[in-house]
């Protein structure tokens, strides 16, 4: 993986930092309630929504629930203002975050205390079509290869972490969105 994507070392905070009793702050009871809810209605589907608004050049504000806007932009090499990740980078971030959430939730469910959880992602794509305005000769559009390296430490053997990673990618919604066809519709208003 390239050094440009290396995150600085940080102190454990939030979900990895133990609370005053040394316990994982993710509620095992809350997780068990989510598990029971999923088992009670295994065909439940939730529709997620996002409204994307162009702000200028290639910078876009994405409105999700009642959160502050999530900004997506392009780097200068792609004529953007370089104020935020570009859409492809944001998709890698979504993939990494989804796999990380799954790893942490499954670790808690299995009683594994997580000491470290970092993922490095790389994706290869051909951008010469320039969003359909450039070279539109036959070629794959979008990522052709994505690599994920998981650096996870817990109070269990490495083999257990390896098995956990394989289990999580099988059930990660974003990993599965990347790895299988999705029904897509685009229409004008």
Commentary on this structure:
By secondary structure, this protein is α+β, with helices and mostly antiparallel strands. Among the domains are: 47-84; 85-130 and 139-182, GMP Synthetase, Chain A, domain 3. It is built from 4 helices and 5 strands; from the N terminus they run αβββαββαα. A 3-stranded antiparallel β-sheet has the order 1-2-3, with no helix packed on it. α2 crosses α3 and α2 packs across α4 (173-179). The model has no long low-confidence stretch (mean pLDDT 87).
Short overview:
The chain has 4 helices and 5 strands.
* CATH superfamily annotation of the domain at 85-130 and 139-182: K homology (KH) domain
For the secondary structure, the number of strands is: 5
Number of helices: 4
Radius of gyration over C-alpha positions, nearest whole angstrom: 19 Å
Strand order of the largest sheet: 1-2-3
What percentage of residues falls in helices of 4 or more residues? Answer: 25-40%
Strand content: 15-25%
Q: Please report the distance between the alpha carbons of the first and last residues.
A: 42 Å
Tell me the overall shape: globular
Largest sheet: 3 strands, antiparallel
Instruction: Quickly give the structural class.
Output: alpha+beta
CATH C-level category of the domain at 85-130 and 139-182: Alpha Beta
Uncertain parts = none
Indicate the CATH architecture of the domain at 85-130 and 139-182.
2-Layer Sandwich
Tell me the CATH topology of the domain at 85-130 and 139-182. Answer: GMP Synthetase, Chain A, domain 3
State the order of secondary-structure elements, H for helix, E for strand: HEEEHEEHH
- Mean pLDDT equals 87
